[in-house]
Write a structure and sequence with these properties.
219 residues, alpha/beta, 6 helices, 7 strands, 13% strand, elongated
Length: 219
């Protein structure tokens, strides 16, 4: 009799342990889901903010370019950066972005060329060539800190602003968002970008934004 009783007791104990494990897993899934939803709302709310106040520099986040010609998305960012410069909200523009394999020009070179052709003096444009958002902002930070500059306007797509502001603030800059007003990425087409940025912000807060190199290759 002792053996069957022990077997039953062992089974009941295992069952209790499994129930506890399931509850813990479900709780973790729930917490993660809430965290993701809250982060999504924060990213979305930030995308709707625009605060073009007088600053010391304008940072243009890179986007695709084709043999030196800015893509529609990059062009929208450049047009806003140009307008901010012409409104004398900042005397310096930092063009960012490296190049993809096979490209002749970097994103930063394409941006600088476009800005200069549209009347921004070359002396007022600085190029930095990072491959990721963190690299671009870190390089921009280094250049700006050498000049004693910290107050910046971040020009990029709205869904990208929250992560850029978070990184810039961690680096010690004082950033303000200026989302591109004529971005070709609109409506429901922005949804995958918001999801990507939500994941980036949610994970970046935990492991550090400098460890999100893989995100550059995610569509």
């Amino acid at each position: 009799m002792a053996a069957p009783v022990a077997a039953v007791a062992g089974f009941l104990l295992l069952r209790k342990i499994l129930k506890l494990v399931v509850k813990i897993v479900l709780l973790l899934v729930f917490v993660a889901a809430v965290y993701f939803v809250v982060t999504f709302i924060q990213v979305w709310l930030t995308s709707r903010e625009s605060d073009p106040v007088p600053s010391q520099a304008i940072i243009v986040l890179g986007a695709a370019q084709y043999n030196g010609v800015p893509s529609p998305d990059l062009l929208a960012r450049l047009e806003d950066a140009d307008a901010l410069y012409r409104e004398r909200l900042a005397p310096l523009v930092v063009a960012t972005g490296a190049k993809e394999p096979g490209d002749v020009y970097t994103e930063a070179q394409s941006e600088a060329t476009w800005l200069e052709r549209n009347g921004v003096p070359a002396r007022d444009v600085v190029e930095v060539g990072g491959r990721t958002t963190w690299q671009n902002l870190n390089l921009a930070d280094s250049v700006l800190k050498q000049r004693g500059l910290t107050k910046v306007l971040i020009v990029t797509d709205g869904f990208h602003e929250d992560r850029c502001l978070a990184i810039s603030s961690q680096l010690g800059l004082d950033p303000k968002p200026v989302p591109a007003t004529k971005s070709p990425i609109t409506g429901w087409s922005t949804f995958p970008y918001f999801m990507k940025e939500t994941a980036a912000v949610a994970i970046g807060r935990i492991i550090g934004y400098s460890h999100l190199e893989w995100l550059h290759d995610v569509g």
